[in-house]
Amino acid sequence: MASTGINSGGIAKITIGGNTVTHLINASLNITHEPREITVKGDGVTLDGIKTFGTGQKEWSISGEALMAEDSTYGRTEIFALINNRTLVEVRFASTVSGDKIYKGDAYITGLSASSGGQDDNESFSIDIKGAGAITEQVLT
């Protein structure tokens, strides 16, 4: 049964090639459409100074941050191998609740960065993922 009410941020997961990123502390999905300008000089429509636009290209990306653990099931080491080998992988942004929406598509890992704070802070890493085609919305079963 799908989630009801406002979703908790704790149920959102990033899955790469069938493996859920371990110790994820935040995740985001960004889908954009960039319309192309189709303003034509003297078309009678733009005399008031308004530009006109048509459909353009879409793109999507996923980013996330996770805590670093050398013994994690799927973490920085596994993601490093994907970016290092330029591997195309299926990526999912989804909750863990059956009936909720999932967003998935093929993508490349485009960024991996590590961060170490102060003496008593946790070490973490961030990942950037860029879609390499269409993204779909489905229901988690």
Key attributes of the depicted protein:
141 residues; mainly beta; Pnp Oxidase, Chain A; eight-stranded antiparallel β-sheet; 1 helix; 6% helix; globular
* Gross geometry: globular
Number of strands: 8
Which strand-content bin applies to the residues?
over 45%
Portion of residues within helices:
under 10%
Rg for CA atoms? 20 Å
- Mean pLDDT metric: 89
Q: Please summarize the sheet with the most strands.
A: 8 strands, antiparallel
The CATH superfamily is Hcp1-like
Stretches where pLDDT falls below 50 for ≥5 residues? none
Q: What's the CATH C level?
A: Mainly Beta
Task: Write the CATH architecture name.
Answer: Roll
Helix- and strand-based class? Answer: mainly beta
CATH fold topology: Pnp Oxidase, Chain A
**Helix and strand string, N-terminal first?**
EEEEHEEEE
Describe the structure.
The protein has 1 helix and 8 strands, in the order E-E-E-E-H-E-E-E-E. Strands 1, 2, 3, 4, 5, 6, 7 and 8 form an 8-stranded antiparallel beta sheet that branches. The N and C termini lie close together (9 Å). Helices cover 6% and strands 50% of the residues. The chain has 141 residues and is mainly β.
